[in-house]
Amino acid sequence: MGQKVHPTGFRIGIIYDWQSKWFADKDYRFLLQEDLKIRAYLEETMADAGIARVEIERNANIVTVTIHTAKPGIVIGRGGQKVDELRGKLETLTNKRIRVNIQEIRMPELDANLVARNIADQLERRVAFRRALRQTVSRTMARGAEGCKAMVAGRLGGIEMSRTESTMEGRVPLHTMRADIDYGQAEAATTFGRIGVKVWIYKGDRVPERKEVAVEAEPPEKAAAAAAPAPTTEAPATAAPAQAPAPAAEAPAQPATPAPAAEAPAQPATPAPAQPAPAAEAPAQPATPAPAAEAPAAPEADQATPAADTQPKEATEAPAEEAGPDGDTTEKA
Fold it and tell me: How many other CB atoms are there within 10 angstroms of residue 32's CB atom?
């Protein structure tokens, strides 16, 4: 079974703000009782002023009371006379300094508390409850609301058994957190008993802005938190003595390493053999008579040529032997 929740309390801290803005540590119950007394007094003395809500803010020595009303002239009075009287009575009631601010409601048809109070007044004047509901809801939708729902419960029409009747136009998304739903309730005192009136008015979606302010305020806090623990860290203090003995052990090892001193005389010894190295290369140049060895190879080629020359000589001698007087070929030994 679905459970009902107060639309305003469901959205406080998301798209709505608190109507009482103060902080108390030990005197919380006394300050809460003062707020209830202030609101009850305003509802009793100014029932005809069309007061929708009262916001109370407390500072060090001053209590600021902001009254949202559809008829500011009734609250202010001629020349502000009623405001001064109201301030004096509230100071007597709370024994504190009071500052009164008046805020006018431009469109009372879109305020749920004022709409509920209007329906209750019609029921007290014996207007038919169905007619009162239809006219009020249609008037609210005509002023620009996206949805409106009105409900009455009690001995409607004077019957013995109580019942509940409601009228709705548009849509009223009760589970949407960003939905701007204004909720109000009132009671009609009739001769048959009390009749309760509830009104929901959906004005559209509202983007929550409080989160953006919280995000902008975070960087300074993070910077302060990051800078604070830096000087209080004890870890470096413990690490410092642990590192101190290590250099002490390395200190004697440094004088025991005169290796650089030994290397210093070794450097002049190395250039001495390095200089004769080119001298050894100088005699190596005349020792390269490779082309001279090739020169005697030329006479070998010359020797090969006479061998080639001898062959034609033998060839010339052969025909000489063939030419004999007898016609016989004789070979000479």
Answer: 13
Query: Any bridge partners for residue 200, and if so which?
Result: 149, 183
For 275, the 3-state DSSP assignment is coil
Alpha helices (H) in 125-234, listed in sequence order: 129-142, 210-227
pLDDT tens by residue, 214-264: 455 556 666 566 666 555 545 444 444 445 444 444 444 444 444 444 444
Q: Cα–Cα distance between 26 and 197 in angstroms, integer?
A: 37
Q: What is the DSSP letter of 220?
A: H
Q: Which amino acid is at 292?
A: A
Residues 6+ apart with CB under 8 A from 324: 330
| All domains in the chain, ordered by first residue | 1-106 (3.30.300.20), 107-220 (3.30.1140.32)
Cα first-last separation, the chain: 148
Distance CA 253, CA 277 (A): 39
For the sheet containing 193-205, what is the strand order? 163-170, 147-154, 193-205, 179-190
The answer for residues whose C-beta is within 8 angstroms of residue 117's C-beta and 6 or more apart is: 50, 184, 186
Other C-beta atoms within 10 Å of 78: how many?
7
| pLDDT score for 256 | 46
For the stretch 84-141, pLDDT in tens is 999 999 999 999 999 999 999 999 999 999 999 999 999 999 999 999 999 999 999 9
Please report where in the chains the tokens 């509901």 appear, as a residue. Answer: 133
The whole-number pLDDT of residue 15 equals 92
CB 86, CB 30: distance < 8 Å = no
Cα gap 19→238, rounded to integer Å = 54
CB atoms within 10 A of CB 179: 20
269-278 pLDDT tens trace: 444 444 444 4
Q: Using the predicted structure, report yes or no on whether residue 301 has a pLDDT greater than 60.
A: no
Measured distance CA(98)–CA(62) in Å, rounded: 6
Evaluate if residue 160 carries a pLDDT over 80: yes
